[in-house]
Amino acid sequence: MIHAAIVEDNSDAQERLVRYLDRYQNEKSQRVIVSCFSDAIDFISDYEPKYDVVFMDIEMPHINGMDAAVRLRRLDTNICLVFITNMAQYAVRGYEVDAMGYMLKPVDYFAFRLQMDKVVSRITLKADVEIYIKTSEYMKRVFLRDLMYVDVSGHYLTYHTDSGDYREFGQLNKLEGKLLSNYFFRCNKYCIVNLKYVTKMEDDAILVGDNKIQISRRRKKDFLIALNGFFNGGLK
Question: Is 0.70 topped by the overall pTM?
């Protein structure tokens, strides 16, 4: 299933894309759920990282699609972004927001189908277990393969990822069950690590990236077993 968002203030152009998505799902037997927005502010202000692809018009009132895309990337680095525009010169700026591509208006179905095939290919490659982190400002989608470790301080969890750190109110005990079957290990009372990112072991501590994390004595034997199992057939 693919969840697509269309951000387009022109009703005819919006309806065209909806028809194309309906045609595509019938041709490919690929279920598509579509959400439409006539204003980029409406799309961004209450954004939830549930979409796989967004078709973003560039020329819109209040905030243009390019500026909206910059804000979108702060909230979701995984969504596929395709611009719809009358102006090909915007293509250069697309690299700033990791756009998959551009389609010039009026969009024809052949070009649309090619773009959707690319979207499906990327979604397939990125298929992974994901979690949603509720920070004080927004919801953040994180794939577990990008999560290095999680630690707790007080009543707050901090998720350390390749792209930055994210903090939410929560309990490590409740999170533990979601992570342990996905090559994570709880090495002490305050921290769960992704075995993929363990680079070195020093006595009762490990290096996860550049961070030194202690292993409790009672967990050390089980940790070594888990780490050995990971490197002899775990996640690649």
Answer: no
Sequence-ordered list of residues with C-beta below 8 angstroms from that of 45, at least 6 positions apart, any chain: none
Q: Which two tokens stand for residue 229?
A: 């199992």
User: How is residue 209 annotated by DSSP?
Assistant: T
DSSP secondary-structure letter at 117? H
Give the C-alpha separation, 179 to 82, whole Å.
32
Q: Show the domain range for 121.
A: 2-125
Q: Which residues of 187-196 are buried (b: 16+ CB within 10 A; e: fewer)?
A: bbeebbbbbb
Beta bridge partners of residue 151, listed in sequence order: 158, 191
**Residue pointed to by tokens 């979601």:** 178
Q: What is the phi/psi pair of residue 128, to 5°?
A: -170, 165
Report whether 113 contacts 25 (CB < 8 A): no
CATH number, domain with residue 20: 3.40.50.2300
Give the mean pLDDT of the chain: 87
